[in-house]
């Protein structure tokens, strides 16, 4: 609804216009009145109307002077001049002040409604357009962090950026200074009471902290317990001063907000954003020793990385991979494996040794899946890779195969559920079900336990009892007939199983179903 204010020094004119608006069908509410220019200025600041009808000739501050003052505070208000003169000397000044229209006193009701209605439509269109722009701005603000994260992902991890990379850069706006460095933020093991679900909240606070600061920075997405930042130098501070200042600010701001603790590794400075992969590798190596008391480390301060330090970093990443697989987070597990490969590349590890380490990790992943009851084959690299780009591509292929096996489980479960529903009345053994899906009984038993929280025989029993309850309610069959129909051969045994699961004997349960009908 449009908010309107009436300004006129004659009470009868205000009352008449107020009455016209109250009886009209226009979507307009008169929120206030004023009898002179000074009152109009004060009321406009307080009521924030969308439309003001303004008399010209008023004692003290006249109408045009009041318009000028009101527009200084709020230039979105529309004005309609009300005057007793057909041609008035203030026309030029009114136009300069952006007055939308004018009305003569007195005017016919139809003229008043037509003039005010025309302005009201203009205000509505403006409001709709403003709301549309506001919604688009909100959507863009929500999208920007995702665009940032995608750019960071492609710059640091992908050898060949996507075809939309340039468009994303244009959308985000390239910094005027392209010099920068990579920061690897590691959320170290939680103190007592720290919970994994805190990480997402901490990640949001990290983004907010960076955006509230004066630095120009692109934030990557959370991967495992790490986040990468691409920081652009501002030209005023040295690289070292800016890196240390950022690390200290983040640690001070976020360590007190969570039971998790940050450790920050800072890579060396690059002259162009497309060289950030080197800085990223250096940031990873600077993150190796998270026991440093200052909780941050610059790559230029790191002694030559030895095998023991490299091993400690990759072991932590390998543990993270297994944790993600155990939770079914395959995308995150793949990102962690890519980071392990990046560490090997960063320290100049021979490609054949890196491939062997990745192969051993994938073997451990398959062992974990087999322990979870998922039947998977041991992975094999199809060829000896000759570059780290090939190693990443081949590793992604092997992970994709494991994901396909995992996703095939849902199809197996659906097939087994449909078969049980169809043949639950027969002697349905676990071996028979396993044969239907061409899996061993042990694997099928593990699937039921993992997905339904019960073993196979309990699942079958529960389904039979639910079927029996439905037959009691929807048919007049005897309990003996229902016993045989749902797959039991002994009515007494059926009665005991039914009472154990439902809490009532079949006879009592059927009476409970009938009782409401008897009352009626």
TrEMBL record:
Coiled coil: none
Span of domain Response regulatory: 3-120
Keyword vocabulary terms for this entry: Cytoplasm, DNA-binding, Phosphoprotein, Transcription, Transcription regulation, Two-component regulatory system
All residue ranges annotated as the HTH araC/xylS-type domain in the record: 414-512
Residue positions, PTM 4-aspartylphosphate: 55
Species this protein is from: Paenibacillus alba
Main location: cytoplasm
Subcellular location: Cytoplasm
Protein name: Response regulator
């Amino acid at each position: 609804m449009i908010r309107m204010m009436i300004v006129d020094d004659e009470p009868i004119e205000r009352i008449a216009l107020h009455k016209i608006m109250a009886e009209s069908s226009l979507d307009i509410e008169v929120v206030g009145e004023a009898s002179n220019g000074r009152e109009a200025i004060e009321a406009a600041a307080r009521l924030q109307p969308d439309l003001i009808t303004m008399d010209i000739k008023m004692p003290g501050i006249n109408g045009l002077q009041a318009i000028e003052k009101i527009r200084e505070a709020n230039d979105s208000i529309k004005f309609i001049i009300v005057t007793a003169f057909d041609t008035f000397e203030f026309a030029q000044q009114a136009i300069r002040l952006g007055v939308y229209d004018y009305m003569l006193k007195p005017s016919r009701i139809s003229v008043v409604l037509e003039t005010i209605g025309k302005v009201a439509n203009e205000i509505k269109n403006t409001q709709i357009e403003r709301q549309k722009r506001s919604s688009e701005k909100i959507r863009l603000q929500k999208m920007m962090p995702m665009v940032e994260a995608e750019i960071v992902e492609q710059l640091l991890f992908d050898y060949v950026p996507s075809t939309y990379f340039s468009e994303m850069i244009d959308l985000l706006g390239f910094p005027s200074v392209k010099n920068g460095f990579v920061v690897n933020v590691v959320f170290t093991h939680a103190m007592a009471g720290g919970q994994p679900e805190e990480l997402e909240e901490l990640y949001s606070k990290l983004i907010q902290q960076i955006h509230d600061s004066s630095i120009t920075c692109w934030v990557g997405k959370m991967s495992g317990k790490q986040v990468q930042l691409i920081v652009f130098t501002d030209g005023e501070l040295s690289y070292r001063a800016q890196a240390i200042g950022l690390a200290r600010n983040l640690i001070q701001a976020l360590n007190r907000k969570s039971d998790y603790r940050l450790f920050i590794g800072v890579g060396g400075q690059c002259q162009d954003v497309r060289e950030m992969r080197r800085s990223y590798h250096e940031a990873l190596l600077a993150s190796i020793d998270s026991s440093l008391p200052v909780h941050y480390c610059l790559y230029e301060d790191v002694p030559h990385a030895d095998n023991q330090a490299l091993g400690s970093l990759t072991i932590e990443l390998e543990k993270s991979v297994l944790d993600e697989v155990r939770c079914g987070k395959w995308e995150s597990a793949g990102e962690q494996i890519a980071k392990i490969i990046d560490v090997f590349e960063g320290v100049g590890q021979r490609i054949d040794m890196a491939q062997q380490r990745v192969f051993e990790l994938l073997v451990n992943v398959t062992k974990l899946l087999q322990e979870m009851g998922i039947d998977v084959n041991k992975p094999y690299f199809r060829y000896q890779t000759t570059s780290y780009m090939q190693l990443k591509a081949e590793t992604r292929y092997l992970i994709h195969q494991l994901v396909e096996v995992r996703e095939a489980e849902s199809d197996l479960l659906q097939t087994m559920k449909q078969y049980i529903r169809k043949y639950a009345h027969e002697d349905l053994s676990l071996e028979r079900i396993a044969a239907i899906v061409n899996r061993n009984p042990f694997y099928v038993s593990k699937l039921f336990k993992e997905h339904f929280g019960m073993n196979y025989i309990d699942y079958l029993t529960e389904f039979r009892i639910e079927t029996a309850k439905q037959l009691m309610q929807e048919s007049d069959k005897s309990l003996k007939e229902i016993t045989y129909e749902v797959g039991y051969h002994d009515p007494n045994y059926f009665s005991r199983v039914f009472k154990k699961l439902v809490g009532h004997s079949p006879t009592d349960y059927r009476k409970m179903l009938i009782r409401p009908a008897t009352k009626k």
